[in-house]
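Bit of a strange request maybe. I'm writing a small parser for structure token strings and I need a real example to test against, not something I typed by hand. Could someone generate the tokens for this chain?
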Amino acid sequence: MPEDVRERPTDDAPLAASKRGDALTQATETLVEPKGDSLIGRAVTINRPRSELFAFWRDFSNLVTFMENVERIDVIDDRRSHWVVKAPGGKSVEWDSVVTEEQPDQFIAWASEDGADVPNSGRIDFRDAGARGTVVTATLLYDPPAGVIGKLIAKMFQREPAIQARRDLRRFKQLMETGEVATSSWTRAQLDEEKD
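Reply from user aminoacidic:
Good idea to test on real output. This should exercise your parser:
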């Protein structure tokens, strides 16, 4: 079979984990409006139908249930939302985000609007994994506040987006497969019950 007809092997890993040298270029090409210089990508397989996962994610008010550092998301309209996220040192960063492109049950792409504390853009993809459910892949480009120093400080405080993306996708998997996010922390109700 001629070279141009043969199917070339694909890399299913998130672009940030790719061994290809053009991963950043390829990532920015997949984003409708690339904003940011730091690339991260994470993927998780969730044993739920793709349409169910997409619908849950598309209601941005749901994201605070599993995104640890997100203080709140104010949904402005069908395409825009305002994000408030914890940053190192007890501070918060904010931005308005707009959906730049979406394909129902397949992907959602977004970008921060001008004036964001943390300029960012990204894409969340939902791909069938057969009997195993759905592969959910998050790709994010961002500019850390205070550049490389800010990224280092964020990493020290466990607030760096690459760390958070991995944790958040793990919590998303738990929530969608079991209905709750596992935690070692006691809730107020558990503390009150223990006192009785």
